[in-house]
Amino acid sequence: MRKLGPKQTALQEAFEEAGIIGSIVDRKIKAKVKGPKMNFYPMEVKSELSVWPESNWRERKWVSSSEVGQYLHRSSLRSLLLGFSG
């Protein structure tokens, strides 16, 4: 199996875990996040599958920026997403 680069890996994970297909957007996200090093790759979603590799044990849920706080409990990640959406 060939090794994917970080952006391709992010797209593959989005497909496997959420059933979404799209492309990485060239927009930098600046944020300080404590903990392990993370790379963030904003994605423009082109399509959503009704069945995907992990759909038997994962649920996909789209939320507005005002609802992010209900689902993300790490304040640094919440700030990152709110900054990106604005």
Notable characteristics:
two-stranded antiparallel sheet; globular; alpha+beta; 86 residues
How would you describe this structure to a colleague?
This protein has one domain. The chain is built from three helices and two strands, in the order H-E-E-H-H. It is an alpha+beta fold. The protein has a two-stranded antiparallel ribbon with strand order 1-2. The mean pLDDT is 85.
As residue ranges, the low-confidence spans are none
Domain module count: 1
Give the neighbour order of strands across the main sheet: 1-2
- How would you describe the shape? globular
Annotation, overall tally of beta strands: 2
The assigned structural class equals alpha+beta
Mean pLDDT value? 85
Summed up, the helix count is 3
Assembly form of the protein: single chain
Task: Please sum up the structure shown.
The chain has 86 residues and is α+β, with helices and mostly antiparallel strands.
Explain the layout of strands and helices.
Layout: H1 6-18, E1 20-24, E2 43-48, H2 68-71, H3 75-85
Antiparallel strand pairs: 1-2
